[in-house]
């Protein structure tokens, strides 16, 4: 087996680069390794990385999931009013009965952290599957980007509303949020790696402080029957009988979908979970069990906090304070912390909330830096600079700045966009596990997951109709990803795409039987495999080229399986068809595969291959499009161009004959 790469460039002059060259060297430092190696969502641990306990990894997930307690109760109260506690109960039921079983199944079927996107990629092959994955990446990017901007906006709200904050900060939400976003980008430009240890401390402190606030608030609720009576009176007065209350709660709960944000991340961090001693790569049962514990525990913790915090904040805080500009706007639990436990404790709570919200943004940035390299390079759809961290950080930081300015750092305004990204990913996960259960003939699971899918489709559609901002942002991301991806795919069309090549014993024997130093190979279309087709190819090659003894000729057939794949492992098999020796290989395209096989044969056998083609009939533009999308088309000239780029030394380059 040989590895084929472009030869290294000639070393330049020694010494540090200066000016623009120095900036470029700094910007692209670490290529091609850096991107995709962040310790965080969708990250792949390095070889020396030691997995850790599931509960510690849960804290890594909690940076995104649990931090929503900083703004979720206020958003729920503003969106659902007095119905917020009941709508939150509906949300918790959907969480425990719908999302949790779905993602436990996702964890079982993608133990290396690929998540539902990779499941759908396997279930939906070829170009439509790739396009669908790219669309889901757009929604995932929306989820992560809004996590950065919304978390920074809420952190600025906690800072400004703190009684000890300087007066000049009042009304500077946009400026402070932009500073936090730029600081986040600057830290990643310097080489930040998120530590699980930091996540454990932040999450533990944040949950402990929230528990204190909620317990004290519920105590006040229990000792203030008048407040409970006022809330219940308002509820029944506005919405009539109990059946109508439940119906309206079902209708408004999609506005609270922010509380579902942690599940995709919980699966994405699975490679960080420590398994059992008997785990294997094919069956990491311990890691899967740890992921199930992580998902279940996180869902139970979050569900408890969601219900109790929603009840306490709705009953104890005047409705006017939830409105934009109110003291509880985007910070309901912080408002109660200051009101019930004093300014000192409230300030500690604010500091803890600001810290976890900022690190939630760091977790989201790490997720973006890991997610892009996980898919796009395999599709051949990533420009070269996307393999380095710093260019991506600059792109994501600029996008975050634009989103912050558009939404004016308003937490409530960004809630719909965030919910859209979360809901689309959960809906796709539900559909993925439904299709998986159906393929495996599991009728009960298919029915159950299908019902959950319908519920999430309704939730997603309802949220998107009421608050279309998420669709608009995701649409821009999807458009950008599609345009950049296909431009990159076109630019990389002439690369060698084989991850590795293996010749079987029969193929090696064919090479050994060649009596001279030149190996003559005729390219043949496997769709025509009758004896006459092989004979005509040999006669044609003999009439237009000097092929020597026709009995020494070997045929090469490339069978195109999925032309949407970019990189493939090539297994070359030697077979006999009607007495003719044929090398057969399954691949995603013809020209690049032919070039890769020729170079491999040259290196493996020390024979110089000569390949013989006939000119392709048809319009050259149509043939070019056939090559780009179906892996066929202009085979001879493209094969020659791939060989030219891969082997600059003409004397060592396999020969291409066309007649």
Describe the protein in words.
This protein is an alpha/beta fold. The chain contains 22 helices and seven strands. It has a seven-stranded mixed beta sheet with strand order 1-4-5-3-2-6-7, with helices on both faces. The longest helix has 44 residues, at 332-375. The two termini are 32 Å apart. Mean pLDDT is 81; it is low at 1-14 and 32-40.
Features:
62% helix, elongated, disordered N terminus, 659 residues, alpha/beta, seven-stranded mixed β-sheet
What's the short version?
The protein is of the alpha/beta class and 659 residues long. 62% of the residues lie in helices and 7% in strands. A seven-stranded mixed β-sheet has the order 1-4-5-3-2-6-7, sandwiched between helices.
């Amino acid at each position: 087996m040989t590895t084929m790469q472009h030869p290294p460039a000639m070393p330049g002059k020694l010494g540090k680069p200066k000016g623009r060259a120095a900036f470029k060297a700094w910007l692209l430092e670490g290529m091609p390794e850096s991107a995709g190696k962040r310790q965080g969502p969708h990250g792949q641990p390095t070889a020396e990385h030691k997995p850790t306990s599931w509960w510690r990894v849960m804290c890594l997930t909690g940076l995104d999931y649990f931090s929503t307690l900083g703004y979720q109760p206020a958003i729920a109260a503003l969106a659902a009013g007095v119905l917020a506690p009941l709508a939150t109960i509906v949300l918790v039921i959907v969480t425990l009965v719908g999302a949790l079983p779905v993602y436990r199944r996702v964890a079982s079927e993608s133990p290396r952290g690929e998540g539902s996107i990779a499941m759908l990629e396997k279930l939906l092959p070829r170009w439509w599957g790739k396009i669908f994955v790219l669309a889901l990446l757009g929604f995932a990017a929306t989820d992560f980007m809004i996590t950065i901007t919304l978390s920074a906006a809420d952190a600025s709200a906690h800072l400004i509303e703190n009684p000890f904050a300087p007066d000049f900060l009042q009304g500077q939400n946009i400026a402070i949020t932009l500073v936090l976003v730029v600081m986040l980008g600057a830290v990643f430009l310097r080489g930040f790696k998120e530590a699980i240890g930091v996540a454990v401390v932040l999450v533990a402190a944040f949950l402990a402080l929230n528990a204190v606030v909620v317990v004290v608030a519920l105590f006040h609720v229990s000792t203030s029957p008048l407040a409970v009576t006022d809330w219940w009176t308002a509820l029944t007065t506005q919405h009539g009988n109990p059946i109508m209350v439940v119906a309206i709660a079902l209708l408004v709960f999609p506005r609270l979908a922010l509380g579902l944000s942690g599940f995709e991340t919980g699966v994405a961090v699975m490679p960080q979970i420590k398994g059992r001693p008997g785990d294997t790569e094919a069956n990491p049962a311990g890691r899967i069990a740890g992921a199930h514990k992580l998902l279940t525990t996180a869902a139970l913790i979050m569900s408890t906090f969601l219900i109790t915090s929603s009840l306490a904040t709705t009953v104890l805080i005047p409705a006017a304070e939830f409105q934009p500009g109110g003291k509880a706007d985007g910070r309901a639990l912080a408002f109660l912390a200051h009101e019930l436990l004093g300014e000192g404790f409230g300030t500690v709570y604010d500091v803890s909330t600001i810290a976890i919200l900022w690190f939630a943004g760091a977790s989201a940035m790490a997720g973006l830096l890991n997610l892009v390299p996980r898919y796009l390079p395999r599709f051949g759809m990533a420009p070269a600079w996307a393999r380095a961290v710093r260019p991506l950080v600059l792109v994501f930081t600029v996008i975050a700045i634009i989103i912050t300015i558009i939404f004016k750092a308003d937490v409530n305004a960004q809630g719909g966009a965030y919910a859209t990204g979360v809901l689309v990913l959960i809906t796709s996960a539900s559909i993925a596990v439904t299709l998986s259960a159906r393929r495996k003939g599991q009728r009960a699971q298919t029915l159950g997951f299908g019902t959950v899918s319908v519920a999430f489709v309704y939730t997603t559609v309802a949220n998107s109709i009421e608050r279309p901002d998420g669709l608009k942002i995701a649409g821009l991301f999807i458009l950008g990803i599609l345009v950049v991806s296909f431009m990159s795919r076109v630019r990389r069309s002439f690369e060698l795409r084989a991850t590795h090549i293996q010749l079987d014993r029969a193929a090696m024997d064919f090479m050994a039987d060649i009596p001279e130093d030149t190996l003559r190979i005729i390219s043949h279309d496997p769709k025509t495999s009758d004896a006459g087709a092989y004979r005509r190819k040999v006669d044609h090659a003999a009439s237009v080229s000097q092929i020597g003894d026709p009995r020494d000729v070997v045929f090469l057939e490339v069978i195109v399986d999925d032309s949407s794949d970019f990189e493939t492992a090539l297994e070359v098999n030697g077979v006999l068809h009607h007495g003719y020796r044929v090398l057969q290989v399954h691949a995603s395209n013809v020209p690049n595969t032919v070039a890769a096989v020729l170079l491999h044969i040259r290196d493996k056998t020390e024979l110089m291959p000569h390949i013989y083609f006939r000119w392709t009939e048809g319009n050259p533009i149509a043939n070019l499009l056939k090559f780009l999308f179906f892996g066929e088309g202009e085979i001879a000239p493209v094969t020659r161009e791939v060989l030219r780029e891969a082997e600059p030394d003409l004397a060592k380059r396999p020969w291409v004959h066309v007649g």
